Amino acid sequence: MTAQPNELSALEAADRIRSGTLTSESLVASCIERICETDEGLGAWQWLDQEAALDHARELDRMRKFGKPLGALHGVPVGLKDIIDTKGIPTERGSPIFFGRKPRRNAFIVDRLLDAGTVPLGKTVTTELAFMNPAGTVNPHDATRTPGGSSSGSAASVAHLQAPLAIGSQTNGSVIRPASFCGVFGFKPTRGAVSTSGVLETCPHLDQIGVFSRTLEDAAALADAISGHDSRDIKSHPRPKPGILEGCRQDVPVKPAFAWFEPSYFGRLSDDVREGMEEVLDLLGKQVERIPVPDGFELLVDAHGRIQEFELNRCLGGKVRENRELASGALIEVIERGAKVSDADYLQALAVKARAERFFDTFFWDFDAVVAPSAQGEAPPIGSGTGDPVFCTVWTLCGLPALNLPVLSGGAGLPVGVQLIAQAEQDDRLFRTARWLLYAIGDEQS
Fold it and tell me: Does residue 207 contact residue 171 with C-beta atoms inside 8 Å?
């Protein structure tokens, strides 16, 4: 059977649009039709302007017809998490506190997406202020379970064939965890590779942008499209970025070396995830080294928590207190905890973070990647939160590139991800290693 346009990968769709065998208009129309048919039950989209998206697609088709320059993802639709500013389009950040908010300029990454020729479809659902309180999205594989958070709608929409690509963000585990629960590729690039200008700031030292896709190469292409230096963002790297798609398509010069270690929080792993991870480690054989937990590793989760709560209060505490009646109890609670973190404790946590970053700079001299679980287990039931983010915490704290590979399933047959983590600014090498791993374990989704 011939795939419907919305079922195509982003790069396959872009190739067909470039060759004239597919139009952006028909691709966008197919995605919109899928959304209209399925989103009442899924709840992945906060805002959708069908006519604006179709008009944009028609213009991109005219550009191709008249021989004008085409972007790397020309004509491909993408979903944007509802914390990413888009000029004149509602960006309400998952909270009634910001009801009706319409930014006056685009976030940096939106302009990058437009340069790449993509069609922004609309805003995907986020949890409240991209934090913990669940939103209305359900898991595309089981509507009684969470899709994860905080990038709930972005992960679910890609998994449910509503869009080939979507953008999310991660301050703790908000890309990798929902990617694991929804069974898609999720990638958080090195901190500083992608600007956060125009994205809701919750924790300046921790906030990072991520991407969702249904193939490894699509994730690489989307990350390439949104990467670039932005002088408005002090965290943005003012230097060339690795070509991630190029790296993804390269063969490894030698078989990669993987590291595996088990911090105390691995005791939270479900039995089926532990069994699945052991199967992966067995397949890797001599390519993986089981090493002791590095000294001080156990301190990093606590340091992340102190930084996150302190900065969340500093960035949003005033706004939340002014609108207390519009905020959840869980958000108010963490804001109040953040207010009690002393400056000394905050600075100490930042020092712990800096030491960890220096440690991993040299750690990866001996390894291509750390292999780890993406999440505790399968997606938990609706009503029990969005899942434990601790399996992502250290890598987010240190700003390392992290990638979810949707290659396992749990006891209930729901997706479970394997996470790969690499050295900072070695995002291309991470994808090269991931491609090798997918072939090594017999997965064909690359």
Answer: yes
